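B., you asked whether I could sanity-check this one before it goes into the benchmark set. Here's the sequence:
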Amino acid sequence: MPESRGQWRYLCSELVRIDYEAAPGTIQQFVGNLEEISPTAAVLLLDTSVRRGQALSFLAQNHRLRGVVESWVYEPPLGYFVSVRFANGYQWREEHFRPAHLLKVARSGRARGQDAS
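And here's what the prediction gave me:
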C-alpha cells in the first residue's frame, strides 16, 4: 500500500459500495472489499479493473471516502487489488469508522527485519 513514512497499516475486511466514473458522465456502481486502510490510503479488492489516475469513491459504514487510483494488481482467482490515495488531504482514523476485522500490522517506510526504535 502506498503511504507516508511512519504510518500504521491496517488489514481489514469490509464490504463497500464503489462509485467509479468509467467514462465522462457514466458512473458505475459495484461492490468491493476494503482490504487495507491507513490514514492516507486504502486497498480495495474488486472484480473489475479501474484506470490508474481515475477518481473513485467508496461508501463504508455511511462514510464516503474519495480518492485516486494509484495502481492495481490482478491476482487470479481473487481479482484486482486497487490502491487508492485519499483525496483533499483526508486522513482516516478509527474514530471516523472502524472496519470489520481491523488488525494493526506494521509501520510503513521501515526495512524488513529492522528493529523499531
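One thing to flag: The chain has one domain: 8-106. Otherwise nothing jumped out at me.
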